[in-house]
Write a structure and sequence with these properties.
nine-stranded mixed β-sheet; Double-stranded beta-helix; four-stranded antiparallel β-sheet; about 25% strand; about 300 residues; binds fe (ii) ion; 18 strands; alpha+beta
Length: about 300
């Protein structure tokens, strides 16, 4: 089956126009996976899967992760995470991440084996607000000056979940905004470091099938670069951020109910606008360990 598609922006994003997620045969699935290999972000609109259908669809890409910072699992199924600002009648949040702005990041880079496939189902999404921006680190890699490409190709970074100070000049300039990973005390830092010790990742990833390369770093988790002293590492991280977070590499998504976005954290950064907390917003998501036979995996 050849899908009808629509590009969402020049550098990333493809909408698949005629696909019902709850009914995808094997050859259609392979075609869909091939499109995701080419494009770091796919959008399906007007979807209405049951939880089982949504989980079954996610599992076709790889094993589903059950733990992620900031999100809350459904009480029925720990593979399904709820992202919401809503609360139960006795005041308990039903989902994670509230209504605040979420600054540029890539999910799970602080883990040794991150589940890099995010599949996000917007069930009730207030239009025109709480938009999610995605930035292609594949487009950014391609546009890098050769000098920087050669430099990052062989580098590894050290990433951490919790840090005492904001990392990168971008995060320092946004200190007044939500700083979700700030650590209050040395004791808290020790607990975090024990649970998620610092990890090392290659800074340039390559998909072995398509040859597509992408930068892999996160402005709030990538702390230093192996083999460089701290200040030189920060300078390089800042330079990469400047070369990456550019309007022409960004697609901003205004959610509608029934939207499903598949995004690859190995090739994208993302951020979310804040929204008025009186507006109900509710989404379900899965995080998938992507199959390295098809996708670049950190
Ligand atoms: Fe995220």
């Amino acid at each position: 089956m050849i899908f009808h598609t629509r590009t969402l922006s020049d550098n990333l994003g493809l909408e698949i126009l005629d696909l019902d997620l709850s009914n995808i045969d094997e050859s259609s699935f392979e075609r869909l996976r091939a499109l995701w290999q080419q494009n770091p972000l796919l959008l399906l609109r007007r979807q209405n899967p049951t939880d089982e259908e949504f989980l079954g669809f996610s599992r076709r890409f790889g094993e589903i992760d059950v733990v992620i910072g900031g999100s809350r699992p459904s009480t029925q199924n720990p593979e399904l995470l709820y992202v919401s600002n809503l609360s139960t009648s006795d005041g308990k949040p039903i989902g994670g991440l509230g209504n605040s702005e979420l600054v540029w990041h890539t999910d799970q880079i602080y883990r040794e084996n991150p589940a890099t496939g995010s599949i996000f189902y917007g069930v009730e999404m207030p239009p025109g607000t709480g938009k999610t921006s995605f930035c292609s680190t594949a487009a950014a890699y391609d546009a890098l000056p050769t000098r920087l490409k050669n430099r990052v190709d062989d580098l590894k970074s050290i990433c951490r979940y919790g840090t005492k100070k904001p990392l990168s000049s971008l995060m320092r300039s946004q200190i007044d905004k939500t700083w979700r990973r700030s650590v209050k005390s040395q004791e808290e830092l020790k607990v975090i470091e024990k649970r998620t010790p610092p990890v090392s990742h290659r800074m340039a990833l390559e998909n072995q099938i398509t040859g597509q390369k992408s930068l892999y770093f996160s402005p709030n988790h990538t702390e230093t670069i192996e083999g460089l002293d701290h200040d030189l590492g920060q300078e390089l991280i800042d330079e990469l951020i400047e070369n990456t977070i550019r309007d022409d590499f960004i697609y901003i998504h205004d959610w509608r109910n029934g939207d499903i976005i598949l995004w690859d954290n190995a090739r994208l950064l993302h951020r979310r606008d804040s929204f008025d907390n009186t507006l109900p917003r509710f989404a379900k998501r899965t995080s998938v360990f992507m199959n390295p036979n098809y996708f670049a995996v950190p």
